[in-house]
Design goal:
Rossmann fold; 9-stranded mixed sheet
């Protein structure tokens, strides 16, 4: 299989390393000549390198887009017009309107459009999904996620759209549908045009989910917890650990008693999620099977992001309008 990787910045280089192990022939493009020169250390053939991705677009089976979000629509539109299957990093676009156009183009041409919502492919998430489907946690009451830590802000999108969006999509996937409403507060303490701090509450029916993201906290956190009436889980993605707590509250007479049960660690795989999701993309090219993180997932996540910004701007709860669609998998 021949794949074209567009964009080899910090995260793009991780894609490059993973793809070298997965594909028969890899072409690489970046508009920065300096980045192209840096590819020498990865032993990419010189005739497979270019500052213009259009040089290779007709020679490949699929395209992997790892560029700033403000370039995604233009690049993906061109690739889809050329009849190429596309993997695009999250956020898939700047707006849900742009995402909708990309999904419609892919669906209209029968092409694969996969979005880099990497947590859907994390081995721990597969375990969590199974626990939920088996009813091990019972009725879900509450959940939270933290995606934060001291780091350099991105210049194309704010922290809600680049970091919080990871867990917006994750809970959409785990619960099987997007939230009905959100309440959110975002701030740009660095006085830029983009937010650097984000706290959002998502409503999935009676279940509420709190998501915190930011570039300022001194501790780096990538964790989620889901609390049910039969048990709870805590997952630390940085440590690759998943814990199941058999805790519950029991009514005894006129009072509630906290019944603390045993805590057990659930074994999970150690394969890199990036390798898993790129393998899935290559498999979709062959089988034509819709990806787990398809264009609709990317669109839904962006709708949540936009609702969060609107909620913060207006200082009120925002209900999200979703199009009617059977299993939410038909064209938007």
């Amino acid at each position: 299989m021949k794949i074209l990787l567009i964009g080899i910045g910090r995260w793009g280089k991780n894609h490059l390393i993973a793809l070298q192990k997965l594909v028969g022939e890899l072409f690489v493009s970046d508009s920065d000549p300096g980045q192209i020169k840096a590819c020498e250390e990865f032993s990419i053939q010189s005739d497979h390198l270019s500052t213009d991705y259009l040089d290779f677009i007709d020679s490949v089976d699929g395209v992997d887009v790892v560029t700033p979000a403000d370039s995604h629509l233009t690049i993906c539109r061109e690739c889809l017009k050329k009849g190429k299957d596309v993997f695009v990093e999250k956020p898939m676009a700047l707006t849900s309107k742009e995402a909708k156009e990309m999904v419609s183009m892919a669906d209209g041409r029968g092409l694969i459009l996969q979005v880099g919502h990497i947590y859907r492919y994390h081995p721990a998430v597969s375990k969590i999904k199974s626990l939920l489907e088996e009813g091990r946690l019972g009725t879900i009451r509450y959940a939270y996620g933290h995606f934060m830590g001291f780091k350099r802000p991105r210049m194309d999108v704010g922290v809600t759209q680049t970091d919080a969006i990871h867990f917006f999509d994750l809970f959409n996937y785990l619960f099987g549908h997007p939230p009905q409403a959100v309440r959110s507060v975002v701030r740009n303490y660095l006085n830029s045009l983009l937010d650097d701090t984000s706290i959002s509450v998502l409503e999935y029916g009676e279940t509420i989910v709190l998501i915190e993201a930011g570039y300022m906290p001194p501790e780096k956190r990538r964790d989620v917890s889901i609390v049910g009436d039969k048990g709870s889980i805590y997952c630390d993605f940085r440590k690759n650990t998943l814990l199941f707590y058999e805790n519950r509250h029991e009514k005894q007479g006129d009072r509630w008693v906290a019944m603390e049960g045993k805590c057990s660690e659930i074994p999970i795989g150690s394969e890199e999620p990036l390798a898993i999701e790129l393998k899935a993309f290559l498999e979709s090219i062959v089988t034509r099977k819709r990806p787990l993180a398809d264009g609709r997932a990317g669109y839904d996540a962006l709708k949540v992001v936009e609702a969060c910004y609107e909620s913060s701007k207006r200082g009120e709860r925002i209900e999200i309008e979703w199009e009617e669609s059977k299993e939410r998998k038909e064209p938007i």
